[in-house]
Amino acid sequence: MIFSVAYTFDQGIIPKLAQFPEVKEIFGKLGSDLLGGGRSSYMVADANRKKLEDAVKESKKHHIEFNYLLNAANLDGFEQTRSGQKKIRKFLDFLSNLGINNVTVSIPYLLKIIKYSYPHFKTRVGVFARIASPASAKWWEEMGADVLCVSSISCNRNLRLLKSIRTAVKCDLQLIANANCLQDCPFELAHMNMLTHASRSGARMHSFNLDYCFLHCSAIRYRDKTHFLKSIWIRPEDLSQYEKLGYTNFKIIDRGCPPDLLIKRVKAYSERSFNGNLMELIAPVAKIRSYDGSSRGRLAKVLPFIRPDKIKFKSLMGIKWFIDDALLTTFDKDSPIYIENKLLDGYLEKILAKGCTSADCGDCSYCSKFSEETVRIKPEYHKSVISQIDVLEKGLVDGSIF
């Protein structure tokens, strides 16, 4: 079994990850860069080029490969310009000179550039490529990709589809183990593009990102807690279900994860067992911090959001309050949301056996009944969050939030 683990740029975390023999790779990127990627800049560590260089050196010291994320969902057209081509190749030169082993892409043209001019890079294809069929997997393999991260949103709960993809290609396949997205999420494509622009240096929004996709998918869960179970996570205890199909490479997220929590997640998947609140393994988290701890640093972090030309300050505070509530920081018995992991033993097996991905949930009450027994949301917390969601969603639809 192989783990590729999010790198958070926290000092001392690489030696801790190296204690787990399954950890063969860490993945990360600068806080913002030429291409952008899968997390808004303000939600992850403030990594500069010196920190990246140090991380690559330290990972090599511990025999762990560093995977740099070039996983933008789009290139905004600058790849079709002379100056854009020069900038892309200059940035790839920088990564190569740094000694980086692996890169992740989601755009076929970028893969072709790398395979032609930088064949020493091992290429991974990220989930933003939305590989969800044997045919799409074969296209990427034929273009030279070394590892394909199969779409977790479309495939994690569909073992028949995963088996057909595994049979279709010879290259390595990877699954995200602890993602918490909605199955077949309608906001997927919009969210990918939004996050790309929110982490691209020089983007039009200048790091400002009103993540309405996160708001909307959170609203779906809070209005129907069944979706906490129907999301795309894989429990540590359920890894064997996927290994039987030939999937032995798993990605553990998140780049915004506090270091202790990230280590706990890796430990749980390494041991294939976890006692406690499942949300501790799958909940979205964010590392929102100042650049250097100084007043100037804190101001620099806040400035992207003080945008009266884009959104009302009152609305911004409403969004902040919602995010403060929705991004959990405690997972013990007093946590606002608690899902007893061990009570889910057997749940996934029945889901996979029923072939739910091709059925209408309206014709089945299995998950609904299971959620009543396993998902606990504190009433006062639930009422508060729903109230915030109602206000924010109305403001988004009628435009008054802006």
Briefly characterize the structure:
By secondary structure, the protein is of the alpha/beta class. It is built from 18 helices and ten strands.
Taking strands numbered 1, 2, ... along the chain, how are they ordered across the largest sheet?
1-2-3-4-5-6-7-8
- Structural class by secondary-structure content: alpha/beta
Distance from N terminus to C terminus (CA atoms, Å) equals 48 Å
DSSP strand content? 5-15%
- According to CATH, the homologous superfamily is Aldolase class I
Sum up the overall morphology in one term: globular
Count of domain modules: 1
What's the quaternary structure here? single chain
Structure commentary:
This protein has 402 residues and is an alpha/beta fold. The protein has a single domain (2-398), classed as TIM Barrel. Helix content is 44%, strand content 11%. The protein contains 18 helices and ten strands. The strands form two sheets. An eight-stranded parallel β-barrel has the order 1-2-3-4-5-6-7-8, surrounded by four helices. Helix 5 (134-142) packs parallel to helix 7. The N and C termini lie far apart (48 Å). Residues 288-301 have low confidence and may be disordered.
